[in-house]
Amino acid sequence: xxxxxxxxxxxxxxxxxxxxxxxxxxxxxxxxxxxxxxxxxxxxxxxxxxxxxxxxxxxxxxxxxxxxxxxxxxxxxxxxxxxxxxxxxxxxxxxxxxxxxxxxxxxxxxxxxxxxxxxxxxxxxxxxxxxxxxxxxxxxxxxxxxxxxxxxxxxxxxxxxxxxxxxxxxxx
Length: 172
Known about the structure:
Number of strands: 7
Structural class: alpha/beta
Number of helices: 5
Low-confidence stretches: none
Strand content: 15-25%
Order of helices and strands: EHEEEHEEHEHH
C-alpha cells in the first residue's frame, strides 16, 4: 500500500431497495458498517461515496450504483478521480465458495465466476486486495436453487447474526 495516497474501499452490491440485505449485497453492508452511522453518502462517478480521514490518510468508501456486472466502470472512475493506485484498492464482496460467517482475504487471483470482480479486473487489473465474505452455496444446504437466485436471495435469520459478526470485525 502506498502510504501517501488515498485508499478506496469498495463494497459490491446492487442498488435499490429490492436488493438490500441480499447475499450479493454483503459488500454494501460491510462498507456501511465500516463508514459508521454518521456517514453522509454523496453520489459521484456512478457510485455513492463517503470520504473521511483516518490517521491522516484519505479513505473513500464506495458503493457502485452501476449494478454488479458493471462495477468496474465506477471503480475505474473513482480511482482516476482520486488518484488511487491499484495497491490501495480494497474490494469487499460475497463469495459462495466460503461458508456463511467466514471471511478470507487475498491479493489478485481469478474472479471465481463473480461478475462484479470480472468487471473490476477488466477495468483496472487484478492486483488489488479482496475481502471475501462467505455467503455459502445452495448445495451446502441441499437446496435445489440456482446459484444466481441464491445470491439475490436474502439472508435467513440463522445467518444474519454470523454475517453481522464478520462485518463488525473488518479492519482496514
